[in-house]
Amino acid sequence: MQNSGEDLGQSVVKAFMNFKRAELQNFKVPGLKRSETRFLFMLHHGLQHKQDKLGMKVADVTAILKVSKPSVTQQINALEEKKLIIRSQDPVDKRAAYIRLTKEGESVVEEIISTFHKNFEDMTSFLGKEEMERLISLLDKLTEYLNTKAENEEV
């Protein structure tokens, strides 16, 4: 166990960095960047909650991902080039653009979800159900703390 707050803080940062590095190695989808995987997963999730046949508004994607419009446009262009998404224009409001998954995109998202489930099943087998539930609880608690702290500092 660490003996000072600074050492403990450094240990937490090191643990997060090591986890992130290991996560990147184990949650890869061949042919996709991590950002593209995240984008497709978010789009899939967003489309499940939308009833619009055109898909999801690009402006909504920008808000959900909390990234700039140029970054979203870059992601859309790359995924469109890979034929994983389709972009369309709103027939009423020509300024609004929509995106949706292609059949191939849906297939890739199924692969992403399957890979995630397999990895989490493996982690649960490794840690055990009780430790996995404790890890989830601690991460939820830490996330709540950090979000509350960020909200209070924005004011």
Automatic annotation (TrEMBL):
Sequence intervals crossing the membrane: none
InterPro entries: HTH_MarR-typ, MarR/SlyA-like, WH-like_DNA-bd_sf, WH_DNA-bd_sf
Entry's Gene Ontology molecular function annotations: DNA binding; DNA-binding transcription factor activity
The keyword ATP-binding appears for this protein: no
Top-rank taxon: Bacteria
GO biological processes: response to stress
Pfam family, one: MarR_2
Start and end residues of each HTH marR-type domain: 1-144
Keywords: DNA-binding
Name assigned to this protein: MarR family transcriptional regulator
Organism of provenance: Listeria weihenstephanensis
Phylogenetic classification of the source organism: Bacteria, Bacillati, Bacillota, Bacilli, Bacillales
